Every structure is written in C-alpha cells, then in structure tokens.
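Supplementary Text 2. Reproducibility record for the structural model of the 428-residue chain.

All settings were left at their defaults, and a single model was retained for analysis rather than an ensemble. We include the record here because the model underlies the residue-level annotations in Supplementary Table 4.
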Amino acid sequence: MKKKLLAMLLAVGMVMSLCACGSEDKKDAEQAGTTETAATGVVSSKDYNPDDYVTLGDLSSLEVTVDVVNYSDEDVEKQFQDEVEYYIEASDLYEYTVSDKTTVEEGDIANIDYVGKKDGVAFDGGTAQGHHLEIGSGSFIDGFEEGLIGHSVGETVALDLTFPEEYHSEELAGQAVVFDVTINSIDTRKMPEITDELIKSFDMGFDTVAAYKEDIANYLKENCEETNDSEKESAIWEAVNACCTVNDPPQEMVDDEAASMKKNAEMYASYYGVSFDEFLTNYMGYTAESFEEETKASAIETSKQKMLVAAIAKKAGIELVDEDVKAVAAEECANYGYESVDAMLADIGEGAYYDHVLSGKVYEYLLTCVKINENEPVSVLAEDEEYDEDDSEDGEVVVLDEEDELEEDESEEYLEEDPTEEFILQTE
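Retained model, structure tokens:
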C-alpha cells in the first residue's frame, strides 16, 4: 500500500494524480472538509534553459532489450477454467452425492447444519443449514473442523470454541462461543458440466460460454499490450537516463513538485475522512518527518526527469505552444472526470500539464531513435503467476468481508464470500 500510494503521488510524468482528478472525487473531498491551499503545478520546464542542467548522451546509439508477453487459445481456455472453478467454489455450485460413509475423517466433505451461540444467544451470521464443509480446509476458525472428526452422520456435536483476538467483528473477537453442529451426511462432489446456463447463473453479464471466453481473450489482449508498452517505456527511459547527466534541478521546481505531492496526500486524507497525520501513518506508513524527506527526494528526481525531457525536446526540435497542450487536454479531460479543459488545467496546474504533454511527445521521438530488441515471448499468464508468487507470503490467507474493497477490475471478476460463512472464516 505504501509504495502504491507513493507512486500515485510521485509518478514521473503522470500529473493526473487520482486524488486530484475527477469532478466527483473533488466534490467529495471538498465536502469532507478540504481547505483551499496555494496553487501547485505552476512551475514548468519551459521556464528554464535545460542546457544549464542537462548533458545529453548519444541517444541515436541507444539499444534496449525487452521482455514480451503474449497469449494463446490455450491461455484463454486455462483462464476460463480457472475463473469458472473459482465461481463454482465461491458459490458452492458443485454437484454433490451422498456417500455411504458414516464417520467424519480428515479430507471428507461434511454436509452440516450449525448454530453459533454467544452467552446462549445465536449471533448474526453464525447459522446455516445444508452447508458443505471440507474437513481440514482451514476455512472455519480453529477447532471447528477438527471437532467434527470421529463423529457420525446424524450426530449433533457441541463445539466450545473461541474466536481469534484479531477477528474482524469486534463483538466476536476473542469471545467464547458454542456451535451446535448436526452432521447430515458425508458427500462426494464433482464439477458440474460447464454450460451456457451455468455461465448465465454467475450473473456476470455473459449468457454463453463463447461470450465469456471472448471477454477473457479481449482482457488478455489488452493486458499484453499494456504490459509490453510499459516494459518498453521503462527500458527506454532507463537507457536514456543512463547515458545522460542531469545536475541539481531548479529549486523552485523541486518546491512546486513537493507541494503538489503534499496537496495530493491531503486530498486523499480528506477523501477517506481522516486527518493528514492519520493518513500518513495508517495508509502510507510515514511520519510527517519521513514523508517530508521522501517527498523532497522524490521531487528532486521528478524535477530532474522533467529537465531531461526538456533537453531532449530542445535537441529534437520539439516545441509546444498553448494550442498543442490544450488540444491534448481536450482529449483527456473527459476521461479524468472534468467538465472542461480550463477546469482540469486549473486543478492540475498548467505548468505540470505542459510537462506531462511534453513527456509524451519526447517519448514518441525516442521510439524512433532507440533500437528495441525483443526477447522470446512468454505467456502473460506465466508472468502473472510469477508476480503472484513474489507478492504473497507462504501460508497467508486473506479473507474479504463487506468492509474490504477490491480493485475495480477484481470487483467485476470475483464473487463475494458466502455471507453465512463470514463470521466463522479463519482470518489467520
């Protein structure tokens, strides 16, 4: 979270900070108590002679090698199967058959009714009928699944348990409870046939298997394009920075950049309805002092990058006039929730937006003079799996409840947990 939020505040060339963009977000921030601050984003690289700060290398001799991802029909099928299995599991749409087993063992799937009581009173979310529980899955709190092992079909078991101290429900955290569990049967299960009717039942907006697969193919295509473009851009700028020398940038630009970052952070704080200090501590992991140090260092690097862009633009003969900047703004303002170009430029700062547009023009120029070599393509799904392995800890289990938020694309692709399970899901 800390790195992601900092990247939003400090991203080189991306002046569309999420907290500063969009009329609706801005209104929300104002209603939350945002106070007006001094204008930021007013200083631009066009206010300086870049040759005073930058020594360019030989850009025409630059050569980079980049990784490339692609996708195949097999990738579409794999992604489709993985997602369908996820929805089947999340909504418990397996086809169950009652077995002839009579005693619960590790690994069995028990069909159970249960009622959870605290001080003799059933608590909300702790009751269910006909629930299928895989014994040993660790999906319920400690002691629940283990307490059913060795008991028989038709038996009702009283489980004296304690919720974890860190449980998300304050009323239940650390509390002693009793679950009365009736074992209805021990079942076997299998995946249902994947039909158009099954896909439609997911309520994802797809009426057929073919439509769902087409959507996945489009998603993978866009993912590949975005990943490859990002890889190429990062490699080019890394090579450019390596062959050029940038001295300390103008102090006025550094101060303006730092002020913009602080303003954005203050707007985030207002949006979340917390004080600035609380936002720094709880959302970004900073103290006021460490945030100031970090923003100062990042403002220097951002300013250096802007001066480097300006130096390349000057050498390449790239010139921007107000009409050029406003033409780009006219294309982008609606995408960022602004009603007019003037409103967007007033919010972001004309100087900052000028550098944003200039950076795009310079990158287009660099694409023409830097030689780009591509490695052998790999599957975009393999790339995602590697990312997931690097970013997760062994044994970590994440449980979402109603208070948790998914990323926008994830919220469209994944179902919520069964609300009847929410209160006894293991959070450790």
